[in-house]
Design brief:
It is a single chain. This protein has three helices and four strands, in the order βαβααββ. The chain is an alpha+beta fold. The protein has one domain: Ribosomal Protein S8, Chain: A, domain 1 (2-Layer Sandwich), CATH 3.30.1370.110. Strand 3 and strand 4 form a beta hairpin. The radius of gyration is 14 Å and the shape is globular.
């Protein structure tokens, strides 16, 4: 299965770059119909995790993906699952 991976360790303290990176990886997954995005934020204080989850909870972002997979233990990552619907496959 194809997936994209975004590691935010290098830009953890750069708000605008985080926003741009998250937007870019979600847009790429939608555009290329990639079913899974792994976002790595690390285990630190939890602030970066909260920021990522707030981004993913935005209504305009949330409609783009099917579900989030957060691991029980704080492993420092989240998986974003997409179910891309082929508009041509619907029949009226």
């Amino acid at each position: 299965m194809a997936k994209l991976k975004l590691d935010l360790h290098e830009i953890f303290d750069k708000d605008r770059e985080i926003e741009e990176a998250l937007t870019r990886v979600i847009a790429e997954a939608v555009e290329k119909r990639i079913p899974l995005v792994e976002i790595i934020f690390g285990t630190g204080s939890g602030q970066l995790k909260k920021r990522v989850l707030r981004f993913l909870a935005r209504p305009q972002i949330k409609v783009l993906y099917n579900r989030l997979e957060k691991e029980d233990k704080n492993v420092g990552r989240v998986f974003v699952h997409f179910r891309h619907i082929n508009k041509n496959s619907f029949h009226r």
